[in-house]
Fold this sequence. Notes:
By secondary structure, the chain is an all-alpha fold. Helix 5 (173-184) packs across helix 14 and helix 13 crosses helix 14. The chain has helices spanning 41-55, 63-96, 108-136, 156-164, 173-184, 191-196, 198-204, 210-213, 218-221, 227-231, 234-254, 257-262, 285-296, 304-314, 325-351, and strands at residues 270-271, 317-318. Zn(2+) binds at residues 147, 162, 320, 324. Pfam families: Adenine_glyco. GO terms for molecular function: DNA-3-methyladenine glycosylase activity; metal ion binding. This is DNA glycosylase superfamily protein.
Amino acid sequence: MSVPPRFRSVNSDEREFRSVLGPTGNKLQRKPPGMKLEKPMMEKTIIDSKDEKAKKPTTPASPRTTLKQCSSLCSSILRKNSASMTASYSSDASSSCESSPLSVASSSSCKKVVRRSGSVSSTRKLSVGKEEEKVSGDCFADGRKRCAWITPKADPCYVAFHDEEWGVPVHDDKKLFELLCLSGALAELSWTDILSRRHILREVFMDFDPVAVAELNDKKLTAPGTAAISLLSEVKIRSILDNSRHVRKIIAECGSLKKYMWNFVNNKPTQSQFRYQRQVPVKTSKAEFISKDLVRRGFRSVSPTVIYSFMQAAGLTNDHLIGCFRYQDCCVDAETTTTTKAKKKNERESDK
């Protein structure tokens, strides 16, 4: 009879171990002949603890107790690591989850934070919209609603500029040149400061007549103690004088500054129909196009932002919010101007 092969039992000390992401990958580390396998640090600590216990007059530890100790030690280490990881992830999530919804996506706690932040952002948007509606709906003593940036505490000259001039189509060369110069001064002053000093600027720059301003002396205007230098910087004063000379060239080429400017919008104002203040842009592609053409002609202080402010003030674009009482008024003014021009054109053709 053939005797069944005997299998030798393997102790826990002679077991084969796997190295995790070691230099040999996840392959088995086999015990080479004549060499002992190096035991891991965890096993060494367990053996040391065994030796200390062996010295004491106690009963020897069984393999089961050893395995229980190892499992309890591993579980305690894993708990500590998981606790530190969740703490670090929660701290990172509190600072970065709102700005980037994909940050720390592997953590379940951050996913909850992301969902909460999403709901918070949606509620914030709704609250912002309601606030803007309230602001734009603030009534003055006259009971009329104005744009959101005009509040009951705004300066009276600023309110008057909004109610009477801003957004109204302008077809006078002097007024167009004045608004172009005032828009360029926004780099140094606010609309409120500019409008409060407007009468002094008109005296200094000859009511913004481009032909008369082109004849002014640079040195006299930029001399210390003059009214001009107390209002604007020397760079802005020189840019106004240089621009007036280039405007004179445009008048000689195109017939008037009005024709040159209004040709960019096909002689018809752009009706923006914005509902909220956040929708109003700082510049547009049309403003960039006009700015490039003016720079090509030698103008200074005519960035796209300045040009768009000029287009808003001169009525080339109607950026009044649709809830403002001035929105419909500017639309009517634009239609009236277009109708008047069409009638004059037909009359000229009939006379011919």
